[in-house]
Amino acid sequence: MIRIAVVNCNTTASMTETAAARARLVVGPDVEIVPVTPSWGVASAEGWYDSFLSAAAVLQTLEGLDGTVDGVVMAGFGEHGREGAREILSVPVIDITEAAAHFAMPLGRRYGVVTTVRRAVGQIEDSLTTAGLIDRCAAIIDTGLGVLELDDDPFATAEAFVAAGQRAIAAGAEVICLGCAGMAGLEEHVRDRLPVPVVDGVAAATAMVEALIRQGLTTSKIDSFAAPLPKRRSWPTFA
Amino acid sequence: MIRIAVVNCNTTASMTETAAARARLVVGPDVEIVPVTPSWGVASAEGWYDSFLSAAAVLQTLEGLDGTVDGVVMAGFGEHGREGAREILSVPVIDITEAAAHFAMPLGRRYGVVTTVRRAVGQIEDSLTTAGLIDRCAAIIDTGLGVLELDDDPFATAEAFVAAGQRAIAAGAEVICLGCAGMAGLEEHVRDRLPVPVVDGVAAATAMVEALIRQGLTTSKIDSFAAPLPKRRSWPTFA
Amino acid sequence: MIRIAVVNCNTTASMTETAAARARLVVGPDVEIVPVTPSWGVASAEGWYDSFLSAAAVLQTLEGLDGTVDGVVMAGFGEHGREGAREILSVPVIDITEAAAHFAMPLGRRYGVVTTVRRAVGQIEDSLTTAGLIDRCAAIIDTGLGVLELDDDPFATAEAFVAAGQRAIAAGAEVICLGCAGMAGLEEHVRDRLPVPVVDGVAAATAMVEALIRQGLTTSKIDSFAAPLPKRRSWPTFA
Amino acid sequence: MIRIAVVNCNTTASMTETAAARARLVVGPDVEIVPVTPSWGVASAEGWYDSFLSAAAVLQTLEGLDGTVDGVVMAGFGEHGREGAREILSVPVIDITEAAAHFAMPLGRRYGVVTTVRRAVGQIEDSLTTAGLIDRCAAIIDTGLGVLELDDDPFATAEAFVAAGQRAIAAGAEVICLGCAGMAGLEEHVRDRLPVPVVDGVAAATAMVEALIRQGLTTSKIDSFAAPLPKRRSWPTFA
Amino acid sequence: MIRIAVVNCNTTASMTETAAARARLVVGPDVEIVPVTPSWGVASAEGWYDSFLSAAAVLQTLEGLDGTVDGVVMAGFGEHGREGAREILSVPVIDITEAAAHFAMPLGRRYGVVTTVRRAVGQIEDSLTTAGLIDRCAAIIDTGLGVLELDDDPFATAEAFVAAGQRAIAAGAEVICLGCAGMAGLEEHVRDRLPVPVVDGVAAATAMVEALIRQGLTTSKIDSFAAPLPKRRSWPTFA
Amino acid sequence: MIRIAVVNCNTTASMTETAAARARLVVGPDVEIVPVTPSWGVASAEGWYDSFLSAAAVLQTLEGLDGTVDGVVMAGFGEHGREGAREILSVPVIDITEAAAHFAMPLGRRYGVVTTVRRAVGQIEDSLTTAGLIDRCAAIIDTGLGVLELDDDPFATAEAFVAAGQRAIAAGAEVICLGCAGMAGLEEHVRDRLPVPVVDGVAAATAMVEALIRQGLTTSKIDSFAAPLPKRRSWPTFA
Fold first, then answer.
1. Torsion sign (Cα): A141, A146, A148, A152
2. For site-directed labelling of B145, which of A4, A13, B56, C121 has its Cα 20 to 30 A away?
3. Which CATH code, of 3.40.50.300, 3.40.50.720, 3.30.450.40, 3.40.50.12500, is assigned to B2-96+203-214?
4. pLDDT given at position C236
């Protein structure tokens, strides 16, 4: 039995479950998906401040997982922490931001990303840039909605994602990456209305982790992602 | 039953078989690997001239496959034809050059490619560049051997790949992509001697095709890779 | 007497003649232009599939020319084969795609390319990128016409090229490259209506080949474009 | 009186003091330097894992500073958190990584960075890349020492920095940035032995913050770095 | 007493005075600003021709300054001469083009430049490119006014700068650099009407020079900017 | 009769003659080469300071040529002034720096430049960058000689160029551009000793100018290189 952790970047367990359910649809019968929700951090992550807070919470959470899973999916789109997870774990770690791009690139000449709020755009751009994947990104487009509006009306939100996708296509995208995770029903809605393939990052990342495990591949430990040295680290405890 | 074609770029059936055997190791039990060898072209492809000849042969071969397989692996490292295959087929097409990079990038900060002969280096660089994957490539290193030497002594050839890998690591690579296909035993040899993950393009491409099929994803048809128009094309017949 | 072959990428002899006629206008009195039309391939090339087919046909045709001409113009805009021709021939080879850019760049800060159909855009971008000439390309704009419409009404087609040129100028182009070959009368039409220099790739490539010949320069043979090794290659025969 | 906080990325107060002392040397007489040490996190930061932990600790610390200082120097070289600080604060925030590059670039054609350990190199590269400053970076070179060796012998450490600087110069650097903070005496040692200007990030960042304050300039709040929305964030309490 | 020269690129003394007055607002009480106007050259610089003429005039002027000032601000936005000044002087030299970008970059994700006339755009782009600062430049926008119109109506000119700033913001700029010098009142006008920080190049460059002087930093002399060799140079005399 | 001016960047008439003689070898029988030497400036140009001085002198000289020639070759390798000449003249202007690259690029995968002194390297890099031609430049290598040594012993100088060329080839160059002008006999010496094509910038630029003239092409005047406005410019007179 292969065990793959799907780790949410925020503390909202329902979003973890949505992501884990998506992951379960793409794996083989011998794979168990382990949903993981940090016990502290942010209810939802928008912006660098939230992202750095969530990165610390996720990394502390991942420390506890070492030795219990065969691979990790980091299910925060554009969120930080990816490289830290690669240092502390010996199993393969895939971030949904990069995975969506890896799967989108062979499907069309350029891809676009659609995401929730404006302030996520810069983070996603940085995440794709440092992963070496920005070259074929035609556009990263937000819905133009505020955080509160996103929660308010799932249908309006989904339609705003469709509109963002159409703008990305107009900018040259031939494939669309869903720049979020844990929004139930969004993927089907967007797929139905756009004339291009729509890639879900959780599905893509889970498939990549499974494939890496089956090929016996994991993070290189010679240099950047060598295991951290033991030292005095004062991990905070949630009060 | 899912059927994935593994299409060699040259006419040497034994290399097709080696690639197909590698592909079989990474797929689920419900996947059939279909080895395909072009009936004309080059016995082995080294350089652009060979590559363009092989691209035409492979594309003619792929035309005959349409409707009979669920996805295609193009098993020529650095060889041409990828985009043409995406036009004429409706199923997903993955080239081993890009697949190796897609799987290598999340495993380390930069990757390197080791390949057979000097004249392959430029082609591989172009292939990675047009796929948008060159940014994190630390080096593409050839064995320094001539074509005849490659065939002569498999052990010496494998050792030359190891030496090339060490040079790539010195240039910053933390992961190595095997820049060839169909050389039996090479992967194990190189893995045993290098301190970093070694990615095989056939395995990576096959896993990507399988994952795309399972996710219902295929080539975008809105623009670059729309089906070719019917027109007068005089495909040559092998004499 | 200097002999320069102008090699069409498709099988339509009238287009070869139009290109050859354009070439004759720019050469010295001691230069003979040799029109060459492949005997198989595509009636017109649109997209990668056509391009790879035409590349094989052109390369086979060029093999037969070796020793009979002093230089070669490859007259397919954005089509493949350039690097292969440099391997198999010892005389200089210039592709009209690159030549147009080489002549456009010193005439303005950025250049634009206007071409026939949408699917040519990506190919032209790749061709300029791998030639190292994309940096100063402001835009590659297609006419928006379908293949059939292009043949239908030469005046409407020429006007569509003018409109595409105006869009390229709006995107920053100060010079326009005609991204096609063999369309009689198009160059004059576009030049008359645009306020910027209009570069014809056939004229530019022919002038470059003539200049290289007169300077005693030809393809470097030390590495990328060394002559292919003798080996078993099964060139198909047109049936 | 202008108040500028110099915020260490780790919990070692002696390093904060060294940085604050350096800052005091460059400011006007009406500027007070406020040393700030996070109460939790890492004793020293090496690698992404440490960096993400320290970023969360620093950001929580900065939240408490809002309204009490006129500008902030983030004194961790290559460490994360910069963009988050810009979101939560209304006063200007300068990171020593970017500041060193900003001051080095006008002093020579290319600059180099010398840093402690190998695993810092990738982080520094990412930090300079996302700040838009990597283009003129000739090299980022580590001392080759382990973490323990760094603490052991200050003279040997300083000499290792000099050797790293010489390698950076050989790679094209005409100016050297000290890629660390809080190492007493290092700057003088390196300056004495290298034939090029040596830029200290703390000094550069403090000068930039002072200049921004005097010009009435602070972070743009229209988009990327708008203040975070109020929401449920569970900041951990150090146990 | 620190002496910083503010050197105009043109011969219009009133513009020198406006720039010097701006510089005086940002320096410490122990800093004297020395306004310098070339005795020959152009009344105003628009385009490369003017810029190269002014560069020669400015460099001849700077030769006479050596040993009399502690640093130099080159107050021509996008004008040439920067690197030559670094060769002939031993004190730090900062150009207002680069300084504006250095101060703008930490204030927002991308910056924009607003400038007078269309032909300045290319020069500014080249100046930022060769300084390694173009990566985060979202747009360089001109007012669309002719040279004569600029002089005609200061209010209309200032409003045209505001409109250019709004276009730059629409293109992604979160900070605006004023791409000119010596226009009295412009900075305040634009700051009042745009929702983002507005950086003045003269202020930024003067602050950088002052900071470099206080840190004992000056131009690297090992390579690119080593002092010119004595040789026969025939500097023209203004007739 | 076509008249092409070959304009030296320095005041040494013997170098102008060497360049003009080279130009005469490549043009048709109906082309007259007009050697032009500035009456003031530098005896030889090394570095930015010399280059800006020479640019002003050359531009003043070119003003006097307008209407008397059909095209201009600017025969200073890496020297400034190119864009200014395009503004003030209506005939085509080609700089030998760019021309060498334009002719080298189609002859091999990457080109290298060999030049006299170290301080020329940065200038040449900037010149190729702003011309959009740096992408395929493998290396710019200087001879390591001082200015005085260059004049001393032509044979030793030529051998130093050969050694620089070998280093460029080791760095990936498959074609070499001679990064200087007016050194009699150098081209033959280097060609004889290097295994790759050697491109002379004067020959390349002259051929490009001739070809542009024959095709009726000249500088675009819509934007960047529009004719300068009449205004007060105080051109100095050589005393």
1. negative
2. B56
3. 3.40.50.12500
4. 67
CB contacts of A50 in chain D (<8 Å) are 228, 233
Distance CA C89, CA C219 (A): 8
For C49, which of B42, B48, B84 is closest by C-beta distance?
B84
| CATH code that applies to domain B98-200 | 3.40.50.12500
Bridge-partner residues for B93, per DSSP? B72
Tell me the pLDDT of chain A averaged across its residues.
94
* pLDDT value for B150: 76
Q: Percent of chain E, pLDDT > 90?
A: 87
pLDDT in tens, F180-213: 987 878 999 999 999 999 999 999 999 999 999 9
Q: Where in chain B is the domain with CATH 3.40.50.12500?
A: 2-96+203-214, 98-200
The whole-number pLDDT of residue F105 equals 98
pLDDT at D92 over 90: yes
pLDDT band at A86 (very low <50, low <70, confident <90, very high): very high
Across F148-167, average pLDDT: 90
The enclosing H or E element of B34 equals strand B31-36
Q: Which fold is adopted by the domain C2-95+203-214?
A: Rossmann fold (3.40.50)
Q: pLDDT (tens digit, 9 = 90+) per residue, C51-63? A: 999 999 999 999 9
CB spacing of F174 vs C204 below 8 angstroms: no
**Residue B42 sits at the chain C interface (C-beta within 8 Å):** yes
Q: What percent of chain F has pLDDT over 90?
A: 87
D81 touches chain A (CB under 8 A): yes
Around A27, how many Cα atoms within 13 Å sit in the side-chain half-sphere? Answer: 28
Q: Kindly list the distances between the CA atom of residue C120 and the CA atoms of B59, C136, C181, F237, in Å, as whole numbers in the listed order.
A: 18, 19, 13, 55
**Using CB atoms, which residue from B105, B174, B210 is nearest to A132?**
B105
- Interchain proximity C214–F196, CB inside 8 Å: no
Looking at D67-118, list the stretches that DSSP marks H as alpha helix, in order from N- to C-terminal side: 82-88, 96-104
pLDDT band (50, 70, 90) for residue E149 = confident
Query: Is F228 an 8 Å CB contact of chain E?
Result: yes
The answer, for E109 touching chain D at a CB cutoff of 8 Å, is yes
- Give the class (CATH, top level) of A98-201: alpha beta
> Interface partners of D (3+ CB pairs, < 8 Å)?
A, E
Question: pLDDT per residue over E154-190, tens digit each?
Answer: 899 999 999 999 999 999 999 999 999 878 889 999 9
Q: Sorting pLDDT into bands at 50, 70 and 90, what band is B237?
A: low
Task: Note whether E1 contacts F: Cβ–Cβ < 8 A.
Answer: no
Mean pLDDT calculated for residue range D24-39: 96
DSSP states of C116-142: SSTHHHHHHHHHHHHTT--TTEEEEEE
Residue F199 token pair = 């491109």
Every domain range in chain D assigned CATH 3.40.50.12500: 2-95+203-214, 98-201
**What value does the CA radius of gyration of chain D take, rounded to a whole number of Å?**
17
Q: Do E126 and F130 touch (CB under 8 A)?
A: yes
- Residue-wise pLDDT for B140-158, tens only, equals 999 998 877 777 788 999 9
For chain B, report the end-to-end CA distance as a whole number of angstroms.
Answer: 36
Tell me which residue in D132, D210, D220 faces E196 most closely, judged by beta carbons: D220
Per the structure block, which two tokens stand in for E133?
Answer: 């600062």
CB contact under 8 A, B236 and C238: yes
Interchain CB distance below 8 Å, A232 and D42: yes
How close C159 comes to chain B (CA, Å)? Answer: 23
- Give me chain F's average pLDDT, please: 94
